[in-house]
Specification:
Radius of gyration of chain A: 19 Å
Structural class of chain A: alpha/beta
Bound molecules: 3-isopropylmalic acid
Mean pLDDT of chain A: 97
Shape of chain A: globular
Largest interface: A-B, 54 and 54 residues
Pfam families (chains A, B): Iso_dh
Distance between the termini of chain A: 22 Å
CATH topology of the largest domain in chain A: Isopropylmalate Dehydrogenase
CATH architecture of the largest domain in chain A: 3-Layer(aba) Sandwich
Pathway (chains A, B): Amino-acid biosynthesis; L-lysine biosynthesis via AAA pathway; L-alpha-aminoadipate from 2-oxoglutarate: step 4/5
Catalytic activity (chains A, B): D-threo-isocitrate + NAD(+) = 2-oxoglutarate + CO2 + NADH; (2R,3S)-homoisocitrate + NAD(+) = 2-oxoadipate + CO2 + NADH
Organism (chains A, B): Herpetosiphon aurantiacus (strain ATCC 23779 / DSM 785 / 114-95)
Oligomer: homodimer
EC number (chains A, B): 1.1.1.286
CATH superfamily of the largest domain in chain A: Isopropylmalate Dehydrogenase
Chain lengths: ~325, ~325
Amino acid sequence: MTRLCLIAGDGIGREVVQAARQVLEALAVPAEFVEAEAGWETFQRTGNALPEQTLAAVQAANSTLFGAVSSPSQRVAGYRSPIVGMRKAIDLYACVRPVQTPPLANARAGVNLVVVRENTEGLYSGQETREGDERATAQRIITRQASERIVQWAVQYAQRTGRRKITVVHKANVLRETCGLFRETALRVLSDAPDLQVEEMLVDNAAYQLARAPERFEVLVTTNLFGDILSDVASVWGGGLGLAASANYGTRTAVFEPVHGSAPDIAGQGIANPLATLSASVLMLEFVGLNSYAERLQTAIQAVLANGPYTPDLAGAATTAEVVQAVIDQF
Amino acid sequence: MTRLCLIAGDGIGREVVQAARQVLEALAVPAEFVEAEAGWETFQRTGNALPEQTLAAVQAANSTLFGAVSSPSQRVAGYRSPIVGMRKAIDLYACVRPVQTPPLANARAGVNLVVVRENTEGLYSGQETREGDERATAQRIITRQASERIVQWAVQYAQRTGRRKITVVHKANVLRETCGLFRETALRVLSDAPDLQVEEMLVDNAAYQLARAPERFEVLVTTNLFGDILSDVASVWGGGLGLAASANYGTRTAVFEPVHGSAPDIAGQGIANPLATLSASVLMLEFVGLNSYAERLQTAIQAVLANGPYTPDLAGAATTAEVVQAVIDQF
Ligand SMILES: CC(C)[C@H](C(=O)O)[C@@H](O)C(=O)O
Ligand SMILES: CC(C)[C@H](C(=O)O)[C@@H](O)C(=O)O
């Protein structure tokens, strides 16, 4: 039987993962759930934000749903972001964030893009040093192998989903070596895909174009931190961070998450939007091959987006529980 | 007499700097102009994209207007971006990009923000290495001194222009040392400015908020590459890159430029929008203390924005020359 691991995390992470579990159970998804812990609360209790058992549970599961975690704003010895740690430890190398025009009033029509982000290196390599209070250095590491792998992933994704254009985003006019290597590698991989239209764009211009003319994009492929920033800009057109879902694909398993954070300002109030986590669940169900369940859930989400009720981030007054019930009522 | 250095550069850089010179002459600005060269064409001819004489001319001038340069998309030995080189060589440490709602139909009302970007270090340190075809590394260097200086600049600017809120943008949840140092330093400097409301924001969220709710910002202060990306996103609300102006302030002199590039696709057609360069000229005139000229030019630009004619980037069909004439007709 399909095993799904659930990691609630902190803040509204708990509320939205609990909501997703309720919905998946109502959908009678043929899967068993295991729960595991991670995050700031876990760190405070155990000294480890990503315990070994959690990593083991993720690796043993067919797929994982990850809520959101809080992180300390001060440096805290030994603390490292569990989602970043998990991406690296399990080599979840492809971070994929689709953005489509939602069935919401006033939504901008014609947006249907996906940001494919390298998820294991770049400025997320974790290689930083600090010289006293005066100076700190971080290494941005780009390898040919990781660049090749992520662009190949993007090509296969584009071909599988019938997209015809890939935009390679870099800053090779300044970062001649690191972005240069990414760019060269990407263009070489793409030269083997003559069915795809290839475009390259500097990251500042890509952010600008995403903010003003998102319909011009189909698939963007880029390095880690650029993908982090660009996918947040893109999510505006999908109805905002309350709706944005993210997949972290590895070779054997995958971790799905809402793009939003743990939102301490609204945690515990029961008003978090569960739809990003439910959209992440659709991607998860597709990944484990439960396609008909994925479709039913996706249809239900679209119906609720079209008709409400809406949580405050979508200018409504509904609670998480009311949105969950509305989704379940669609089944 | 005030000496203004003009560097046209490549592509439409030539057209817009020529346009600015015409306008400044029509305005009878009490200044003498000197011309200097830089860019890709200069590199191809002389082997140096930023000749020594150009640097000397910039340092000898009260202020410089810089058009735009092309850069090779392949790595070319010895080529380095002249604008990046100039910022570093002359220690033009504060890159400042104001964005305001323009008097254009359909413009989003209520936007009035400025991005203050550290301009000498970070990922622009130029310290990159490449290990064969397999791996490349760039150093992101953050110092306390440069962080302090840019945040102090932002504080003084906010106080001088009557703004009350500063947003410190970083990614300290991942870049704990480099962004951590920037963040700590910024918050320490800001604790001496109790008249200002201080907010901090992660760069991905800042890009998202700039793309959807720009009116919430007054002054943003951030590191080099983040500022590069965020200022392009912000420029959408000011009428786009065809209107966005940039100042690079040092301790003794300053360099002003349009944010747009050399636009090889439209170069030579006489349809480049000169207004970004004219807005940069307003900032330049203010910097050298020619405030009444700055005001007259700013008023003329606003009138042309309100009534046209418009170049193609603003959905019009006017030429550069027609826009220049319309501006001059306002004097
Ligand atoms: C929480 C943070 C470490 C993470 C990232 O930067 O990758 C988040 O912003 C994301 O995009 O998933
Ligand atoms: C041309 C390029 C080197 C430059 C930068 O990255 O700073 C430009 O994008 C800018 O914002 O002025």
